[in-house]
Amino acid sequence: MNHKPIEGFSKLSKQGKIDWLINEYLQGNEEYQNILKQYWNENVELQQLHEEFSENTVSNFYMPYGIAPNFLIDGKLFALPMAVEESSVVAAASKAAKFWIDKGGFKTTIINNEKLGHTHFILNVEPHKLLHFFNFSLKKKLFEATDDITSNMRKRGGGILDIKLVDKTSEMPNYYQLKASFDTVDSMGANFINSCLEQFGKTLKQEMTISEEFTQEEKNSLQIVMNILSNFTPDCIVRAEVSCKMEDLKDDSGISPEEFAQKFKQAVTIAEIEPFRATTHNKGVMNGVDAVVIATGNDFRATEACAHAYAARDGQYRSLTHCTIDHGVFRFWIDLPISVGVVGGLTNLHPLVKFSLALLGKPSAQELMSILAVSGLAQNFAALRSLVTTGIQKGHMKMHLLNILNQLGATEEEKQYFVNYFKDKTVSHHEVIHEFNRMREAD
């Protein structure tokens, strides 16, 4: 090995962790220590708060926090907070919001709000025997055993909605599930769901032990494999949509509204049938979704996993968005499965998360679902609008221009020159380098 493993790294002080990293991996270069420290917050208490969000922290990692204004959603005007490092995401979302603001804006519908979790277990028993035990004894006991856990959630209008026994023995020998659906109201609910499921596992074991329906051999075969929520929530879903008369789709690219609508619909259809395109198409959707998810302190990995699983629910990966042109009316929409919360976790701790939720009017979890679906739909609309008209690079590379110039160490005066230089040109990395070198040589 080229480095020595370390014991007790987590027990070192923050400075101790940094010293070890610099000496072991970075040849003792003090410049790297300065890089880490320059991102520490001067407010000691705030810095400690950030460090306690995770483990083995040595610094903070900044992301741009931008605002996409002019989102008309269900008759209310919003400015969306977006935490994202990719150029053009905030600009594209803002442009789409502005496009639709005088056409009625975005409309949303909460289709369902159920979240899921499973107790996965192995049991060598005839399925009909287990089903009888579940229906006439176990199901009631599971609700009773979790009564204390669900008490507060039930007071808020949520709780366990249903519990089902699922026979998976055709796919794996002796494999069954207790599949439960939950309403967690304004919380994402992971801890609540997992606590209920762990109690299910204990209750299943207890009830089987005392049951007279099973032989001792059958009882001994029981294995509780795991109790865990699912991030695939196909029944926690929101629809966001826009629509207008086709002639209202006027675009400054020079093509007619009719041609724009037809090309746009074709682009969506291609993403519905071609997985290679659908992957990039849905990545663009999640550009918009994840930026607001992160800004509001929610789990973007969970939203990503759920969205992509849903996109492949029929066995082929497809577009999350859809488009129709019917009797001269253009309609574009998304059905997005997404589970988020506005209480618990970072929502009560991270100052910028609290700012984001206040900016959005302190939404309920369902209202935040709507906002997230709209953000994804807007981002996708903007991307497709560029793709079928001017091409994606024209707008994207203009936003990327400053990144290139910063890498070159350009001055503010030089940056302004390049902004003007590319006003009527498509930005390319090669052209920026060429013109930058010409300028420097001329000086």
From TrEMBL:
CDD domains: HMG-CoA_reductase_classII. Pfam families: HMG-CoA_red. GO terms for biological process: coenzyme A metabolic process. Its EC number is 1.1.1.88. It catalyses: (R)-mevalonate + 2 NAD(+) + CoA = (3S)-3-hydroxy-3-methylglutaryl-CoA + 2 NADH + 2 H(+). The keyword Membrane does not apply. Pathway: Metabolic intermediate metabolism; (R)-mevalonate degradation; (S)-3-hydroxy-3-methylglutaryl-CoA from (R)-mevalonate: step 1/1. GO terms for molecular function: hydroxymethylglutaryl-CoA reductase (NADH) activity; hydroxymethylglutaryl-CoA reductase (NADPH) activity. Keywords: NAD, Oxidoreductase. Coiled coil: none annotated. Signal peptide: none annotated. Belongs to the HMG-CoA reductase family. This is 3-hydroxy-3-methylglutaryl coenzyme A reductase. It comes from Chryseobacterium potabilaquae.
